[in-house]
Every structure is written in structure tokens, then in C-alpha cells.
UniProtKB/TrEMBL annotation:
Superkingdom: Bacteria
Entry keyword annotation includes Coiled coil: no
Lineage: Bacteria, Pseudomonadati, Myxococcota, Polyangia, Polyangiales
Descriptive protein name: SPASM domain-containing protein
PANTHER family found in the cross-reference section: GLYCYL-RADICAL ENZYME ACTIVATING ENZYME MJ1227-RELATED (PTHR11228:SF27), RADICAL SAM DOMAIN PROTEIN (PTHR11228)
Occurrences of domain Iron-binding zinc finger CDGSH type (ranges): 263-297
Length: 306
């Protein structure tokens, strides 16, 4: 049953991102002109389905957008978190932000009920680390490398900050083959990501993994269904999901997957995960085992993600 595979959901609550970074499929799309909000019936269907996903552990409120465009979005995220907590107590909530809209009036660092936030500064005009910490009650700061800081806030929320203007990304990948300038390597491993990390686009389309975005032409054939017409369980039990899972688990890759490097590694420590200590993991705050030797993983804990 594919529903039992779902460990993480990315739920996009609107369409807008002010940036068009060249390492993101938004560089191919026009998502910086108008805001289209996710319909309530799509959000309600996700909340309704959550108790039927026994292995769900994480829920994210970003996809290819900037979640915190105004204060109302923080309130909406908090309301969804409250509803999900009523029906499923084992879910961690998180979001990524590009900091474009951080202000005292829109202080999502302080006001959100998330467990974990990943925030990145992409341009000089966005808040620096020093400017950002004025918005939060910082309990302790752990500097892992120039431009990379992990903050532990007083209420237990973790904020990971990365200043891309100081320390650019060292590893980029082609987001399901959509960014051809980053398609430098062939995929060598079968993929088991299908439905483990589900993506829900603002238009209700359900995507099989976090790399795929339904407006990208290369990803359109892999839309599993739409939550305005079907329930999540109907989509997960449908033929598109079953056949895509079967193909990629057997390394019978469609073009979108042929150069995808997501989880294209054999884990050295299966069943366990450690905290990242070099700041370069793609799975922050956890080590993804690609930079072992740069400090090595921090304290280990049982891995419930794989
Ligand atoms: S190989 Fe395909 S299905 Fe797997 S993570 Fe990459 S794009 Fe997604």
C-alpha cells in the first residue's frame, strides 16, 4: 500500500515566490507576478487524510514558493498544525524561507509553531545573520562554517541559517531533470522516494517526490492526481502512482529521473542518522553522509526516515 510509504508531505499554500534562482525550477516558470492561494478543500483533504497515513513523520509548508509572504500565512500554517496535532501526534512541522518578507510585522521566526526552519539569504538586500537574530529570542548559536549557523531558540524551535552570498551551495542537482545545466551525472541507483516525500502543489496536483513540480513540462506526465477531484487515498491507490513506483523502483527511469541525484547513494550507516556538523548536508539538520571527513556526523539517533 503506497499510503503506508508516506513519511513526509510538502504542502504548498500558495503559488508565489519573489525570486527566480537558477538552481530552482522557478527559473523556468513565472511565479513572481501573482499569488494564487491553495483552495481550502485541498488543505481540508490533506488534514482529513493524515490519520490514515500511519508512517507520516514530517510535514513541510514550502515547495517552490516562499511560504511567509505576509503575516496571515503564518496564522494559516499555525491553524493547520493545530488541526493535525489533534489527529496525529507524531508529526514534525517545518518550512524553508528565503527571508524576503521578514519584518517585525511579519515575524514568522518568532510566531510560527514549526519545529524546524531552514532560512536562506540569497541576496545582499535580504536580512543578514546579525539582522535576522534581532527578530528572535536566541538561546544559543552554533556556528558550523562561514555563512552557516544553527540557532536553537528558547522554545525548542531550531532555525538553520545559510547565507548563500557568503558560502554558496557546493552541491546542486537538476530537480528531476528540469535544470539541464545541472544534469551532469547519470543516476546509478533505483529510486525508492516515490510517495515517501509527497509534494502537494498549490493547484492541488499531487507529485510523487519533492523534486517534481506539476507546472514544469518535464514533470507534467508524473502528476499522480488532483485533490480537487480525488481523495489522497484514491490518488495513492491509483494506477499512475502504482506504475511510476514500479518503474523507478526497478531503475526503469523516465527522462525526469535519469540524472536525478536524490538519494543516489548507498548509505554507510543504514538505520541511523546523525546531526550535520559541516553545514553542507542536503538533509539538514541531519547528516546525509556526503561530507564525512569534514567534522563527521554529530550524535546519532535512530533513523525513522528510511
Ligand atoms: S529519481 Fe525521479 S522519482 Fe526519484 S527522487 Fe529523483 S526525480 Fe523523484
Amino acid at each position: 500500500m503506497l499510503r503506508e510509504r508516506v513519511k513526509s508531505i510538502e504542502l504548498e499554500l500558495h503559488s508565489y515566490c519573489p525570486k527566480q534562482c537558477d538552481f530552482c525550477p522557478n527559473s523556468l516558470l513565472e511565479r513572481n507576478e501573482k499569488v494564487v492561494y491553495t483552495e481550502e478543500r485541498v488543505i481540508d483533504e490533506i488534514i482529513r487524510a493524515v490519520p490514515m497515513l500511519p508512517n507520516l513523520r514530517r510535514m513541510a509548508f514550502h515547495r517552490y514558493n516562499e511560504p511567509f509572504i505576509h503575516r496571515g500565512q503564518t496564522a494559516k500554517i499555525n491553524a493547520i498544525i493545530a488541526k493535525i496535532k489533534e489527529v496525529h501526534r507524531g508529526v514534525e512541522f517545518w518550512a524553508a524561507s528565503n527571508l524576503s518578507f521578514l519584518s517585525e510585522g511579519n515575524n514568522f521566526l518568532r510566531d510560527s509553531q514549526l519545529h524546524f526552519m531552514m532560512v536562506r539569504r540569497y541576496e545582499e538586500k535580504d536580512p543578514s545573520f546579525e539582522a535576522m537574530v534581532q527578530f528572535v529570542d536566541v538561546h544559543s548559536v552554533y556556528t558550523v562554517s562561514p555563512g552557516n549557523h544553527i540557532l536553537f531558540l528558547h522554545d525548542g524551535k531550531i532555525v538553520y541559517y545559510h547565507d548563500v552570498t557568503v558560502a554558496p551551495f557546493t552541491e546542486l542537482y537538476d530537480r528531476g531533470g528540469s535544470l539541464v545545466h545541472l544534469s551532469t551525472r547519470r543516476r546509478t541507483q533505483p529510486c525508492n522516494r516515490i510517495t515517501i516525500n509527497l509534494g502537494i502543489d498549490y493547484n492541488g496536483n499531487v507529485m510523487p517526490c519533492s523534486n517534481m513540480q506539476s507546472q514544469v513540462p518535464a514533470h507534467e506526465p508524473h502528476i499522480l492526481g488532483n485533490l480537487r477531484q480525488s481523495t489522497l487515498l484514491e490518488i495513492l491507490g491509483g494506477e499512475p502512482a502504482a506504475s511510476f513506483y514500479e518503474a523507478t523502483a526497478n531503475a526503469d527511469f523516465p527522462p525526469a529521473c535519469r540524472s536525478c541525484q536524490s538519494k543516489n547513494v548507498i548509505r554507510r550507516f543504514p538505520g541511523r542518522r546523525g546531526w550535520c556538523t559541516c553545514g553542507r548536508s542536503r538533509n539538514l539538520p541531519y547528516c546525509d553522509e556526503t561530507h564525512i571527513g569534514n567534522g563527521g556526523p554529530g550524535p546519532w539517533e535512530e533513523d525513522t526516515e528510511l
